[in-house]
Design a protein that fits this description.
Elements lengths: L2 H7 L8 H13 L4 H10 L1 H8 L2 H10 L3 H10 L1
Helix pairs in contact: 1-2, 2-3, 2-5, 3-5
């Protein structure tokens, strides 16, 4: 399964259980080729992820953003 589809499925509880969604996103983010995809996905879906998982979303951001310090700084300036 491609990473984009997997990320999309992570928000669909009919496809991936909600308690597994953070692990799915982290798995994509741990792949060097998926890191940017995960980062873009988290930015685009941040409000929904935060509403669902609260501070667990920060664990996702920590890993997938580590390589994107400037982007991370700009992103957090919004919130």
């Amino acid at each position: 399964m491609d990473s984009v589809r997997l990320l999309t499925y992570s928000l669909d509880e009919a496809k991936i259980r909600s308690q597994d969604s953070v692990a799915v996103i982290n798995s994509v983010a741990h792949n060097p080729e998926g890191r940017l995809l995960a980062w873009n996905f988290v930015q685009h879906n941040y409000n929904e992820l935060y509403d669902r998982y609260s501070y667990s979303v920060i664990n996702i951001l920590y890993f997938c953003c580590f390589s994107y310090v400037k982007w991370t700084h700009d992103f957090w300036a919004i919130f």
